[in-house]
Design a protein that fits this description.
- It is a single chain.
- The chain has about 110 residues and is an alpha/beta fold.
- The chain has two helices and eight strands.
- The strands form two sheets. The chain has a four-stranded mixed β-sheet, covered by helices on one side. A four-stranded mixed β-sheet has the order 5-8-7-6.
- A hairpin with a 2-residue loop joins strand 2 and strand 3.
- The longest helix has 12 residues.
- It is globular.
- The N and C termini lie far apart (about 30 Å).
């Protein structure tokens, strides 16, 4: 079964969000479908997008599981963004959480070390 995923993140200030997510995700969007949306392809057929929707901003909660969490967090830090929280669950799985300018939560998870 084919699967495509588009995970949306509502924002107030599209320009500020575009800049912040470029730093968080390490590059420009894969495409811009219109003047108020930007889409990044995280893996084949798996996308995250920001959209100017002020009335809904600040309520997104997404976690992206990555192969090398430490490298991902270090790369994000090099681009000037620091996490707001770091957790290690009882099974050893780790999660590092970031908040965008609107308060949306973007987490990166990683396997136990």
């Amino acid at each position: 079964m084919a699967l495509d995923l588009f995970a949306g993140i509502p924002v107030v200030d599209y320009g500020a969000a575009l800049e912040w997510y470029e730093r968080l995700l390490g590059g420009p969007p894969a495409f811009l479908p219109n003047d108020v949306e930007a889409v990044w392809e995280l893996a084949e057929h798996r996308y995250v997008y920001v959209e100017k929707l002020p009335e809904h901003a600040g309520h997104a909660m997404h976690t992206i599981f990555v192969g090398d969490l430490d490298a991902r967090v270090a790369g994000i830090a090099e681009r000037g963004i620091e996490p707001v929280n770091r957790e290690t669950y009882s099974n050893g799985v780790r999660k590092v959480t970031y908040r965008d300018p609107d308060g949306n939560e973007i987490g990166f998870g990683g396997a136990p070390v």
